[in-house]
Write a structure and sequence with these properties.
It contains three helices and three strands; from the N terminus they run H-E-H-H-E-E. The chain has 80 residues and is mainly alpha-helical. A three-stranded antiparallel sheet has the order 1-3-2. Helix 2 crosses helix 3. The termini are far apart. The relative contact order is 0.18.
């Protein structure tokens, strides 16, 4: 059982680290950035970036700029 908890904690910690990297990236780009741009800059897959952005939007830290676009073209910026 403790092995499962450790794995969950590791995954959770990786997600938090990724979220922090995404926020730091957006902080350098006041005009926002697309999922694909963020992924390329951070060396992450678009789906991993999108999961982080979804969490950050839900938490009110990031705003989605371009709705209805394909995943790689969605644009995000830090929330006001």
């Amino acid at each position: 059982m403790s092995g499962l908890l450790l794995t969950f904690d590791d995954v959770h910690e990786d997600g938090l680290r990724r979220d922090t990297l995404v926020v730091a990236h957006l902080a350098k780009r006041p005009g926002g950035a697309r999922v694909g741009q963020i992924g390329t800059a951070l060396g992450l897959r678009n789906h991993a970036v999108a999961r982080s952005l979804d969490r950050l939007v839900t938490d009110g830290l990031v705003a989605l700029e371009a709705e209805g676009e394909p995943l790689a073209l969605r644009s995000y910026r830090l929330a006001d």
